[in-house]
Design goal:
The chain is α/β, with parallel strands linked by helices and about 350 residues long. It is about 25% helix and about 25% strand. α5 crosses α6 and α6 packs parallel to α7.
């Protein structure tokens, strides 16, 4: 089969690999649609260290090709969504409520990290009964694929943000994860949602997904403007959706005492992330910093698919570019270099 791989740090390309085979509890999925993520760029840039000929990608849907002898829920021909995070559900971390951390910190993140990812004609799924979900007939592949990561991660930012009904929320950066955090904040009942973004098409999408106010950090000071919008109190919840020291520090500054900073960003560069001392109340302002890795698992995926099936949300508005798998090298370049006002790139197999 054809696979799109990270050959070494900074270098990608196609190579031929054998079609994987399932273990007793596993499945092999024939890929139909996939999405390119900024974290793929971080990986190629060396964010998790060197990898040699590792198949990239972690956001995909497809059709079950083969299942192991112990798989009970799925059979060949089923149309399925696979979470970007595929935990080992028997690990103590999973039993303790932190399945994404099973095996090691971030251990549930296997695709394009500790095993081949989904940018191939077929891919392997561990613990298939626990890590896949059947896609409802009314949800097309190009919509369902957003549940693998973008909805799950963005919604996690809202969930871990402890948003009170009618509360105030700021989402810093309106890329795909930030946009879904904005949508998640609206679904959680926020009364005021502030989107921080400078790119016009992303500002427009942010308003579509629920932002009441847009703060353009290139034109005004985020801390000052957020203070004005909250009558000097600061927000109940600030969601960091970029993965940058500056935005994280701004989140701490604009969150009121007793509020929550919810981090969804992947910090792919730099060694340290700072906490502004005074705005943190010199460590005593009751500001909670919550972090998390995209939740996985069949139950999570089924719930996200239900949001789409009942038409609560249309994530395909973020799809600005579509490429065939044969052209994924160009697709990756467009996503990596943020060309042509890209938001999200869909790959069709």
């Amino acid at each position: 089969m054809k696979a799109f791989v990270m050959k070494q740090i900074g270098q990608v390309g196609f190579m031929e690999k054998p079609v994987p085979r399932p273990g007793p509890g596993d499945a092999i999925v024939r890929t139909t649609k996939a999405l390119i993520c900024t974290s793929d760029s971080h990986t190629v840039g060396g964010g998790i260290g060197p990898r040699e000929n590792l198949t990239l990608g972690h956001e995909a849907v497809g059709v079950v090709h083969e299942v192991g002898s112990e798989v009970k829920v799925f059979q060949p021909g089923d149309r399925v969504l696979v979470g970007a995070i595929t935990p080992d559900w028997g690990h103590p971390a999973a039993q303790d409520g932190y399945a994404s951390q099973s095996g090691a910190p971030l251990g549930g993140w296997k695709f394009s990290n500790s095993k081949d990812g989904v940018f191939a004609e077929y891919f392997h799924v561990n613990e298939a009964d626990a890590n896949m979900a059947k896609i409802p007939d009314g949800v097309p592949d190009e919509m369902a694929v957003y549940c693998a990561d973008m909805l799950s991660t963005g919604f996690m930012g809202a969930e871990k943000g402890n948003i009170p009904i009618g509360g105030t929320v700021a989402v810093l950066a309106q890329g795909p994860v930030g946009l879904m955090a904005t949508a998640g904040a609206r679904l959680r009942g926020a009364g005021l949602i502030i989107g921080v973004e400078s790119v016009p098409n992303r500002q427009k999408l942010a308003r579509t997904y629920g932002a009441d106010e847009i703060v353009d950090f290139t034109r005004e000071d985020v801390v000052t403007r957020t203070g004005e919008l909250t009558q000097g109190e600061g927000v109940d919840t600030a969601i960091e959706a970029l993965g940058a020291d500056a935005t994280f520090q701004t989140c701490v500054k604009i969150t009121k005492p007793g509020g929550t900073i919810s981090n969804t960003g992947y910090f792919g560069e730099g060694e340290l992330v700072g906490i502004p001392r005074v705005e943190w109340g010199v460590g005593m302002a009751d500001k909670t910093i919550a972090t998390g890795l995209c939740p996985g698992g069949r139950l999570r995926m089924e719930r996200l698919l239900r949001v789409l099936e009942t038409k609560r949300l249309d994530p395909t508005l973020m799809t600005t570019h579509t490429f065939r798998f044969d052209d994924i090298e160009r697709a990756f370049e467009v996503s990596d270099k943020k060309l042509d006002d890209v938001v999200k790139v869909l790959v069709v197999f």
